[in-house]
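Feature request disguised as a bug report, sorry. It would help if multi-protein outputs had a clear separator. Right now it looks like this:
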Amino acid sequence: MPFSKLKQSAHLRLQRVSSPDEFRAIGFLDIERHALLGPYFYGRAITALPGALLMLEHTSPRALSGLMNAMGCTVVVPMSNPTHAVFNGRTWSASEVGLLRSEILLDLHEPAPNTFAVIRFASDMQNRGWEESEGKLHLYDAGGEQLARLQHVIRCAFALSCTPIDHRQFAFVAETLRDELMDALDNLLVLGSDRRSSQRAFERHRKLVAKLDEFAHSHPEIPLYSEALARELGTSVRTLQLAVQAIHGASLHQHLRNKRLWSLRAQLARGMPATSVSSAAFANGFSHMGELSHLYKVTFGELPSETLLRSKGS
């Protein structure tokens, strides 16, 4: 789906920037130098899948340098062909997917307009077989079919986010799209031999995590501690932690916290007149509003109050 066809909704936030100064204020980059190489335009669409923030960015010709904070793990996918970019002196082709971890100094030169997707994970995505070294850009040459599949899942996510569907239905479909996204990324970023050797264990882990998610969904009111969950599911804490790490690339705590963030977002997105951020937060187990605001923005690209205001205005 082209950027121009996207429409803001309860599930999608659109940002259009008319000057580099505005981009500096809303971006995830700490920019030291920003030179224009043509007429300026910049657009960003933001949506979320469970455990991942998705951004579609449409850029004008530019040259910039500074610091990029990839958080735990960020994947960048070219969405236009050809893609014109030189990242830290290395040509970035339209068939290459980039993986970054932690912070990285960047020097980016884009002589022509580009469109690319940025996938920022809520966890560090360790122990999936992806490259784990930090501080550099890792480029993976994707075969035509691999890249097309990855781009298709991303376009489906943004197309879904434009639709005015109920948030619970959106969350259900988003779970499926997230699984498809992770499978497409694993097929690209994990060595084939590693995938084959771990396939049986992955299936066992997937079934255990499904049981965990079902239990957490049916008991939203109770604290979720590792020992109690393990006993309820008939397994050990270590096995439960390993299963969540294998499936979601996150710790058990991160995964359960993310589930509750999505439950909170669903409540805010309904935009009921009596709903406030604080009441919805307490109902979903969050008591520290400052910490919640930070977690929510990292997960969804906006503050809880912005979700509520947009929902009430739609």
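(second protein starts here, but nothing in the output says so)
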Amino acid sequence: MGKVISLNISEKRGTEKTQVSSVNVIEGFGIEGDAHAGNWDRQISILPIEAMSKIPSNKMEEVKNGGFTENITISGILLDDLKIGDVIQVGEAVIKIQHIGKEEYKEHGRPYIVSREGRFGIVIKGGKINIGDFVKTIKSE
């Protein structure tokens, strides 16, 4: 079982996200107050901190010092345990992973790793998520 180590939202796309202590997640929509929420297949973004091991040494400092670009940062779950089609519970919310990474990789800052290893999905069940909440896989494809 993993846990939530950071929650982040932004009002405008293409900007760094601001860390918050809790979020309200809306079924079929995403995180209340986040610019990426809406009726599409990337309502919410998750970065497993374990993905940091995949960053080349020449990019590490840049990524670590970049601002948050993912909604939820988690720890304690292996990357291989977060596949497309998997359903995970994060706090009260339930999320189905639809994508790993983006079609176009970003080359600078934190988007470097999020664009490659971030998990993007849809909200199956809404609810509250707090920093420190548990994360667990409830259905694996």
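Even a blank line would do. Unrelated, but nice: The first strand starts at residue 2 and ends at 9.
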